[in-house]
Input
Amino acid sequence: HVQLVESGGGSVQVGGSLRLSCATSGFNYGIYCMGWFRQVPGKEREGVAALYTDGSATYYADFVKDRFTIFYDNAKKTVDLQMNNLKPEDTALYFCAADLIFPPLEVRLDVGYWGQGTQVTVS
Output
């Protein structure tokens, strides 16, 4: 039974930082591509950052470049998102996803596995 569980969300002031973490379980094969997405009520889900777990590439949406960094811990099988210099427009429900296909920031809810989300509020 595959599971993705996000943690680390919360409320933070403008300019602050948060680190989201996504724990994976139930995979009986190596996960190649993982990422973080976000969604605001009434808007479509959008890609934030993604990576290939072999370290070959990372991808960032333009609106988070130079502020967010995505990490993969191979020993723990977790993917983290370090978010710095947060802005009110970063407020959203953040989702972790695994087993993505190229292009990894494209939202394909019928592909891969998705977590339930963790709320980030910036004010």
Summary: The radius of gyration is 13 Å. The mean pLDDT is 94. The first strand starts at residue 3 and ends at 7. The chain has no helices and eleven strands.
